[in-house]
Amino acid sequence: MKKILSLLLALVLVFSLVACGNNGDTKDESKGEDTKTEESKDDTTAEESKDDTAAEESKDDAAGGKAEGEINVISREDGSGTRSAFVEIVGVVDGDGNDMTAQSAVIQDGTGKVIETVSKDKASIGYASLGSVEGNDSVKALKVNGVEPTPDTVLDGSYSIQRPLNIAYKDGSLSEAAQNFIDFMMSKEGQEVAVEKGFVKSDPNAKAFEKKDVKGTVKVSGSTSVGPLVQAAAEEYKKINPNVEIVVNQTGSSAGMKDAMADGVVDFGMASRELKDEEKAVLKPLVIAKDGIAVIVSPDNPMEDISLDSVKGIYLGEITDWKDVK
């Protein structure tokens, strides 16, 4: 009997030891699983942190206006008033005033073509009349030295790339109809047309237009930047005086001045720049409005602001990569 009891006690003791051992293993395994879970959480958190950091850096790059890669330079053709004014103002000339635009620049013969080319190319940069860019979402006008190109900044002089919009004619050669149309452009009503087209008044104190009963045809040629303004003024003028036909041909500033200097070709020419000495010797210039020249890029380009020195360097061919632009 005693032997049986001893045997039973021994069995109970063995089972107790086994149970304790199993509990210890379970606890250790549980601890191991908990550790793995914590490590997994740490790994996930680290990855998420990396992703968040990358996203923030990407946002910072966009906000900071960073861009990289080769710059595709777009310029206007020789004889363009916009180009002449741009290179002179920005300093893309040599000591004798000769145009030093980089040979690598892609040349476009018109404001519309420059805008179209730049709008389709994230790596490109160009320039165009402020009046043709305002309200055009296909391109982005950059601030220059921190100043946005607007009519107000052109008027107060804080925007540096600006120019006069001229018409020019031989003194004493204007027909009555041509003179009356010019009077309209310089009147309060005509100056308001300039503002509506995104330009700046040349005469903030202009008086109301005095209508005259005149007839005839007025022929105009020249700048593709001044042309849209003269055309818009012509449309408003014809509402007042429908007996005058106005024909506007946009052929470029130099061509317009050449036509104006010739006899009987046009009544007056248009130039989006100051007249050259040889032109002034023959023609009388008249500033009908002021304009800024906007430096434009594609809306996909993250840059928002550019220094005037960088613009100069780009068009001289000294800066060829966006990462070097300031």
Question: Briefly, what is this?
Answer:
This protein is of the alpha/beta class. Strands 1, 2, 3, 4, 6, 7, 8, 9, 10 and 11 form a 10-stranded mixed sheet that branches. Strands 5-12 form a two-stranded parallel sheet. Pfam families: PBP_like_2 (PF12849).
Question: Which architecture of the largest domain does the CATH hierarchy give at level 2?
Answer: 3-Layer(aba) Sandwich
- Count of β-strands: 12
User: Helix count, per DSSP?
Assistant: 11
Backbone structural class = alpha/beta
Tell me the distance between the termini. Answer: 103 Å
Overall mean pLDDT stands at 86
Domain PBP: 64-189, 214-324
Membrane topology: Lipid-anchor
GO biological process, one term: phosphate ion transport
Function: Part of the ABC transporter complex PstSACB involved in phosphate import.
Description:
Keywords: Lipoprotein, Palmitate, Phosphate transport, Signal, Transport. The protein is an alpha/beta fold and 326 residues long. It has two domains: 72-162 and 294-324, D-Maltodextrin-Binding Protein, domain 2 (3-Layer(aba) Sandwich); 164-290, D-Maltodextrin-Binding Protein, domain 2 (3-Layer(aba) Sandwich). Helices cover 44% and strands 19% of the residues. It contains eleven helices and twelve strands. The strands form two sheets. Strands 1, 2, 3, 4, 6, 7, 8, 9, 10 and 11 form a ten-stranded mixed beta sheet that branches. The longest helix has 62 residues, at 2-63. It is globular.
